Amino acid sequence: MWLKLLLPSTCKIPLGVTVEPTEACAYEKSGQESSDDTDGSHDGFRDNYFDVDYCDSEPTDVGSSRQTLPVFRNAERTSNDNGASATQPAEGNPPVDPLLQVTGAGSDEPVNVPTIEASDSTFSDGSDLHEGKYFNTKKDLKRKLSDIAMKGNFEFRTRKSNRSLWVIECIDPNCSWRLRASKIVPESTKFVIRKYVGVHSCSLLNKNANHRQATYVVIGEQVAPQYVGVEKGPGPKGVQTFARTELGAQISYYKAWRGRKHAHTLIRGSPEESFHVLPSYFHMLEKLNPGTYLFLAFGVAIRGFRYMRKVVGIDGTFLKGQYRGVLLVATAQDGNGQCYPLAWGIVDSENEDAWSWFLTQLKEIIGDTDELALISDRAPSIKKAISTVFEKAHHGACAWHVAQNIKNKFKCADIMGSYWSAVNAYRCEDFTGYMIEISNRYPRVAEYLENEVGFEKWSRCHYPGLRYNITTTNMVESLNSMLVNARDFPYVALLDVIQEKMSKWWNDRRIVATAITTPLTPSRESELRPRFAQSNGRHTSQLNPITYHVKGGELEGVVDIFKKTCTCKEFDIDKLPCVHAVAAAHHAQVSVYSLVSPYYTKEYYLLAYGETIYPVGSQSQWDVPNKVVTRIVLPREVKEKKRGRPKTSRFPSVGEFRKWKNRCGKCGAYGHYKKKCNSQTGSTEGNPPTNVPG
């Protein structure tokens, strides 16, 4: 078998002329080695390529299956270090085929053209790369080649790399695919492809499902667009599916998890960057939304609180990011029964000092009056902080948390009906009846509610202030649920989500308020309308110009239309006309809307959302004073990371249970594994379990 070397007619280095390296290659050789260089045995591997234009089609000798792709090397490097020539190799080096030598004029030393073995079938990498193509940075070039390799289902390895040069080849040493790129000039960061052979001649034996170019960084960069504009995006299993279907790479769950985390960093920034940018971020928030406080209370919401009922729910929820912490929230409820966030704060943990700081800031923006009601759970730190900071406001306990404590402490879930009736009772007479029922069955529960908790904390009729129909902290829990995915973000990204949500709410509710055609908000209008129908059968008599006696139904009522009160107490507490008040207004020929609290009107609803919350925009557009930019905010100290998967779910509160528990594969019951099952009946698969939680 013999092989004939064919050179294309367009070769820039004609035969008979001594070959010299190009100026670019001479510069490339002088580049400093970086940490990703290969070992010293490859330092000179093809470090001087020549400007050779290859034929459009590879020449093949008749009767031979071998093909050659000419790759020239500098004539000066054809002799090895121990003086052996190309035709007479040193001991231990492979012999050079004499047919693959080109001799320059005036020199007896040949220029080697290495033999490149190829399979009978070759294939292209399918890319748009070509010699002379530019990339802004070496990183961009690497990212492009990694993408091509994964999609083309091949792998490459680095043969030489430094700050100015990058030489790679197919992982199969007999394959012809290779690429060489270098800086344009030493001062530039741009890289240009000097030499590129985009045809593969490797076999399928080198295909590997665990692709070496499929690093978590590359995976994260590829999947990052799927996290733009969304809070959650695909999970690790979704990233695995993306890598398999879009990139043709099989990756582990752990690599997918790291890739997802890297994508989050690319889109939302790192936790460290978040701390650095916090001063500038708050500066822009205050600049675009005047009156905004640095513990994140938008001036728009502060001014709109004038048109809210003065009931504020407060609570905290833990954050799941690298630096953890707790997000404290204060929210009101608008006239339509929707959450109206007032203030947000991030602290190390829920303790008395943290709550005292947060409530002090809250007091500055909403004041301290007898009309103000603060609703929370019965955490000692909150209770003590409220009593310290607020002198006039009244503190109420969340009735749901009290109920959970009762069920957990006394194991008496069967009296919850009587308990909730007592919570929602408007009259003290009705409340006493329900408490007698509880006391007769569970005396210890009645004693707990009266002495340890206090009637005035959880009972609507005994509350010293005005809490209207708000008996729980559900409005705060709703905000916590809204941020269930964003709580894993860096602080600035979390604040961005809060701003985006509030901006959307303000705009949507402003549109709704503008379209309202009735004097009241939609929810209050729908609540009041049935009372008109119920008042038709009531007998009303006038006692004096402002007082009316209404009979009929289960309960009589005496209504004072001037003081807006009724002996049923429903009108007094909710500030929305009861059935008796509606009948009295009809008899007195007074508009029933005049008896409604202004907090429920369309006018107040529109004023509460009349202003706009503006985003801070891209960081490149910020105009921040230098004294703010140079301000240093250090991350909080965190405990040493524990082994295993990071915890992202909270411990259940007292009386809570998880919606899902482990199911036994043997008996079908929940709460234990098959190995710990004591059942002797065998599997009940296909039959519904009898002890499903909830």
Describe what you observe in this structure.
With 694 residues, the protein is of the alpha+beta class. The chain is 33% helix and 13% strand. It is built from 21 helices and 18 strands. The chain has a five-stranded antiparallel sheet with strand order 4-8-7-6-5. α16 (491-515) runs antiparallel to α20 (602-608). The radius of gyration is 38 Å and the shape is elongated.
Q: How many DSSP-defined strands?
A: 18
> Which value, in Å, is the CA radius of gyration?
38 Å
In what range is the share of β-strand residues?
5-15%
Task: Please give the largest β-sheet.
Answer: 5 strands, antiparallel
Q: Detail the poorly predicted runs.
A: 1-120, 682-694
Q: Which structural class should the secondary elements be placed in?
A: alpha+beta
Q: Specify the helix fraction band.
A: 25-40%
Strand neighbour order, sheet with most strands: 4-8-7-6-5
Principal-axes geometry comes out as elongated
Total of helices: 21
Average pLDDT level? 76
Q: State the separation between the terminal residues, measured CA to CA.
A: 81 Å
